[in-house]
Amino acid sequence: MKIAILSPFEERVPPVKYGGTELVVYNLIEQLVKMGHEVTLLASGDSKTSARLEPVFSQSIRLLPDSQDMKIRDALKYIGIGKVISYLKKNTFDVVHNHIGWRLLPFQKIIESPVVTTLHGPLDVAYHQKVYGVYKNSNFISISLNQRLPMPQLNYIANVYNGIEIEKFKFNEKPRDYFAFLGRMSPEKGPVQAIEIAKKAGVKLLMAAKVDSVDKEFFKNKVEPLIDGKQIRYIGEVNHAEKVEFLGNAKALIAPIQWEEPFGLFFIEAMVCGTPVIALKRGSVPEIIIDEKTGFICENVSEASEKVKAIEKIQRENCFNHVKENFSAKKMAEEYVKAYLKVSH
User: Fold this and answer.
1) What CA–CA distance (Å, rounded) separates 242 from 336?
2) pLDDT digit string (tens) for 68-121?
3) How far apart are CA 87 and CA 79, in angstroms?
4) SS3 of 7, please?
């Protein structure tokens, strides 16, 4: 098949450090190319891919000098959409796979090729609901069944779980004496609650996370004062190799999410290293983690701190096998191809 894939311009593909959607896009493309499909990636010019790269900007938006101004950054996204539309008007594909989200939807009728949109974010945001509601008959793909709950009326053509390249991770049977927190230092990821869990359970917590410009104040006022550099340590943002070591050596990943997480790539990244996940029962958690087999699904912080003490009950091999069977990049690509065939002419 001839496939065009649109990735956010915010970050390169694959991301240098933190970036969920861009990593999923990368994993998908590499598999599609291996399967023999003709793939064109429309993304930032600093992206690395086996597909044909059509650069929308010379480099990822967040690296551009004036992009720290959020209004300019938003304006750049629309300039990018304009470039994408111009390109797609001149070139036809069996399918156009949109990972940019709602911003493309008002213009999709201009594109001659069929468009499918993977929903990467939550659907309980008012302005998202407004746009998706207007274009509810478009072809949507969810990344968990829980993600659909706020907007069951959308035209879902498939549910495809995110996948990772299993071979790029390392299974570790013998962890060290610490627990891990990974992700963004934002309220919805629950860094404050993770620290509370570790302190209640009396265990060491290492935190590897990105501090986005929008979260700087939250980090400075709410999280930083709780980091003592001994029991609770912050090690900054990590690249892929560092992440594999960091997760593999942890006794468990503590993920007390405070929002309806649509998927949570870090859950499967931990489990593929053999590391169980202790998470709160929100969003996609019950679809990804098997309670008492690949981790613990908890109702609150108190229960989570109790489960920290029971972590030895989880067999690390179960975590690895669960991801290998259900969340590989290969399986994800196969599921997407089935979805493409539903809409292609």
Assistant:
1) 30
2) 788 998 999 999 999 999 999 999 999 999 999 999 999 999 999 999 999 999
3) 13
4) coil
Neighbour-count burial for 284-296, b at 16+ CB within 10 Å, e otherwise: bbebbbbeeebbb
331-345 residue pLDDT tens: 999 999 999 999 986
By DSSP bridging, strand 38-43 and strand 2-6 are parallel
Residue-number span of the structural domain to which 55 is assigned: 2-163+328-343
3-state SS, residue 275 = coil
C-alpha to C-alpha distance for 80 and 55, rounded to whole angstroms: 10
Q: Are both 172 and 205 inside the same structural domain?
A: yes
Cα–Cα distance measured from residue 342 to residue 345, given in angstroms and rounded to the nearest whole number: 9
Tell me the C-alpha distance between 160 and 336, whole Å. 7
C-alpha 213 chain-centroid distance: 19
Q: How many CA atoms lie within 13 A of 97 on its CB side?
A: 30
CB 6 within 8 A of CB 42: yes
Same-domain pairing of 11 and 157: yes
Whether residues 320 and 335 share a domain: the answer is no
CATH of the domain at 316: 3.40.50.2000
**Could you tell me the CA-to-CA distances from 153 to 139, 149, 338 in Å, in that order?**
12, 9, 22
